[in-house]
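Run log // design_07
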């Protein structure tokens, strides 16, 4: 029996009995009537949740995963064993009818904790313990592609590092390499070269995005920079895999696009079709981000839905031209199979990014529902897709792409469920109306549909965007209203047509149509990004309050009944509280102590230099809610610098920063806080109880530092 319905019935009958117990007095009667109305309202709210347990299961799973990943250290495996035994007991109780929805949700929450723990334990990635000098590396090229500027990004499966002990060899390393050094080498080649290696990157700010964790789950145990040309020794054979053939296919598609389109539009088209964004113009990328159109570049649910949905509609329309076929065969299921195949092919040629894999899983669940005769787009299908994604990759729960994609789809499904009745009434009797009325109604429905889609998607993705990127586009609504019809009805159909026509050499015209649409989108992005206040800086957020806001959004989308609007109010309040109460450190130190920033007397962060540790310093400003660029921030008053050392005062305390070339003073006892990019040892004297020394060894052990005073 569904717990919501059973609880609703018990609540209503109990209160009804209490209301007829014979109490005297008008105040008691009025109170009883009011209580009875409240009980009936609550019972109605609970009855509306009948059969909704499945849609809350992934939310509970996410809570368990978040609880695990929030732990500062990995718990003993015995904790997960005990939790798994509790889960088995709860499942048995549910099967025997002794428990209801609460037991189901608790079991999913505990299973999420166990799933995160098992996913971490089963990831056996070796990490390089420390930075090296120039070493000789041998291994197989696992991936090679453009990165930034004139350099390439190369992932190497390590076979040996000559100057490093074998027990410290990482399994894979992501390296920056010059195109001249790569030469004619390709994926799968066994190569030898010299490189500087270092451990995976740690967060630029304590509690910030952990780049090393992402690489660790992908098997990346080191980073580095190639220092010599790649040689091909004959000691080991090359590897030839199906993925290499797939990479060659993607490269061939990109070459065809570049041969027919100008450089600016070609980079955009290659990003949409193959997922390779390195050729995208830098100014264009910034305009898309400021205008709120950067999501177009991420091949995820939008692109996959347009490709698969377009193929589904086209195949079904073509099959419908044969009445005999329509009357005797399930053409809708044939179209679903064709759309699923098209989505699978798009997944392969687009680089198989995590966001694209999730979108493919979601679409697969929906098209399988069509094949089984069920509704394609529903909260149940979304819930099943979310559970499958988290079972495959539990760490995906921490990524912005997972959070944004599922929140957006959840909000859109809930929004269209609410608007379905209104649109049905508007379309009722449409055929009997005059032509001009039908045209007006169609335009109204189209405009309202596009507007509501953009509003809902923006509302549900603003929270993760602000949390992970510390900014959000203020004019995203008008930008998407102008650009998305072009992307939906011109760019993506032309992209599908061009890829299908490439084997026959007929891709020129579809690519020209795609280029015209992309040029229009670029013009819209540039125009909107030039408007005043195009981007808003959110600053760092309190993780607990941000999580509460996300759960409130889930309640807004998943709960049926008027009580759902309380979730919207709670989401807004918790979101603003997360920003207002966000951490604002007084001193920030880069993970190698190459630079630092302090909150001077005017309350703003002031970096010691503008050209050192640029990435970390830019992240600090964003996390502080500061929209100034790094050069402007470094010009603020507060530091007095000379000979690669800087002095300043923060809240009445003296601070000394020593760069790599600076010579520390013989006695630092006159300074309250000393930060050094080199090991201090005893060169600066022993710190007193009122002093704080942070040197190269401290940041090497613990990464970036934040000091609150």
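design_07 sequence
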């Amino acid at each position: 029996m569904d717990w919501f319905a059973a609880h609703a019935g018990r609540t209503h009958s109990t209160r009804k009995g209490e209301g007829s117990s014979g109490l005297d007095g008008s105040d008691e009667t009025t109170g009883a009537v009011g209580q009875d109305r409240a009980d009936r309202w609550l019972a109605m709210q609970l009855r509306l949740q009948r059969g909704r347990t499945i849609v809350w299961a992934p939310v509970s799973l996410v809570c368990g995963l978040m609880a695990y990943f929030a732990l500062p250290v990995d718990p003993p495996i015995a904790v997960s064993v005990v939790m798994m035994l509790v889960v088995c007991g709860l499942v048995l109780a549910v099967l025997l009818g002794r428990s209801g929805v609460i037991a189901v949700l608790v079991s999913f929450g505990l299973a999420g904790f166990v799933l995160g723990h098992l996913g971490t334990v089963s990831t056996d990635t070796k990490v390089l313990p420390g930075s090296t000098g120039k070493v000789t590396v041998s291994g197989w090229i696992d991936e090679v592609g453009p990165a930034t500027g004139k350099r390439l990004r190369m992932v190497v499966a390590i076979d040996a590092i000559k100057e490093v002990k074998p027990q410290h060899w990482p399994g894979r390393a992501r390296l920056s390499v010059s195109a001249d050094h790569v030469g004619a080498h390709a994926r799968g080649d066994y190569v030898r070269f010299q490189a500087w290696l270092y451990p995976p990157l740690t967060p630029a700010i304590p509690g910030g995005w952990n780049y090393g964790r992402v690489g660790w789950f992908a098997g990346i145990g080191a980073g580095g920079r190639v220092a010599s040309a790649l040689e091909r020794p004959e000691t080991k054979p090359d590897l030839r895999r199906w993925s290499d053939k797939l990479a060659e296919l993607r490269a061939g598609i990109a070459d065809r696009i570049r041969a027919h389109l100008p450089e600016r539009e070609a980079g955009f088209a290659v990003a949409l079709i193959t997922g390779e964004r390195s050729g995208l113009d830098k100014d264009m990328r910034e305009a898309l981000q400021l205008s709120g159109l950067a999501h177009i570049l991420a091949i995820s649910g939008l692109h996959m839905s347009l490709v698969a949905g377009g193929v589904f509609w086209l195949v079904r329309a073509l099959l419908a031209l044969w009445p005999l076929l329509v009357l005797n065969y399930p053409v809708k299921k044939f179209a679903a199979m064709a759309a699923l195949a098209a989505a699978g092919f798009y997944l392969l040629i687009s680089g198989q990014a995590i966001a694209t894999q999730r979108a493919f899983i979601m679409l697969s669940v929906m098209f399988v529902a069509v094949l089984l005769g069920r509704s394609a787009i529903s909260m149940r299908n979304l819930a099943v897709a979310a559970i499958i994604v988290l079972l495959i990759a539990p760490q995906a729960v921490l990524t912005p792409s997972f959070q944004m994609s599922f929140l957006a789809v959840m909000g859109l499904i809930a929004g269209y469920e609410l608007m379905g009745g209104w649109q049905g009434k508007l379309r009722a009797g449409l055929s009997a109306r005059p032509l001009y009325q039908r045209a007006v109604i169609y335009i109204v429905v189209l405009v309202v549909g596009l507007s509501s889609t953009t509003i809902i998607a923006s509302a549900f993705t603003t929270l993760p965007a602000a949390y992970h990127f510390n900014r959000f586009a203020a004019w995203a609504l008008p930008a998407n209203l102008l650009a998305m019809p072009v992307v939906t009805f011109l760019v993506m159909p032309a992209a599908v047509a061009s890829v299908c026509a490439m084997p026959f050499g007929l891709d020129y015209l579809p690519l020209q149509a795609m280029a015209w649409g992309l040029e229009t989108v670029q013009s819209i992005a540039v125009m909107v990004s030039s408007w005043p206040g195009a981007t808003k800086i959110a600053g760092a957020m309190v993780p607990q309050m941000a999580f509460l806001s996300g759960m409130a959004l889930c309640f807004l989308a998943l709960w049926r009944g008027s009580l759902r609007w309380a979730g919207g109010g709670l989401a807004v309040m918790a979101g603003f509280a997360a920003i207002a109460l966000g951490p604002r450190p007084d001193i920030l130190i880069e993970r190698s102590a190459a630079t630092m920033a302090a909150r001077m007397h005017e309350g703003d962060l002031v970096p010691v230099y503008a050209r050192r540790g640029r990435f970390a310093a830019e992240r600090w400003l964003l996390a502080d809610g500061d929209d100034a660029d790094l050069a402007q921030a470094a010009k603020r008053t507060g530091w007095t610098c000379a000979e690669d050392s800087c002095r300043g005062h923060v809240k009445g305390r003296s601070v000394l920063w020593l760069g790599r070339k600076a010579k520390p003073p013989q006695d630092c006892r006159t300074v309250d806080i000393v930060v050094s990019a080199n090991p201090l040892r005893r060169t600066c004297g022993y710190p007193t109880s009122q002093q704080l020394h942070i040197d190269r060894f401290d940041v090497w052990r613990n990464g970036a530092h934040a000091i609150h005073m």
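The two ends are 56 Å apart (CA to CA).
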